[in-house]
Amino acid sequence: MHFNPRDQIILLAGLLPTAQRKRIWALRDLRPRLAVLRDAGLVDSSGLCDPAGVDAARRIRHITLDDLLAEHLPSAGITTG
Question: pTM for this one?
Answer without folding.
Answer: 0.89
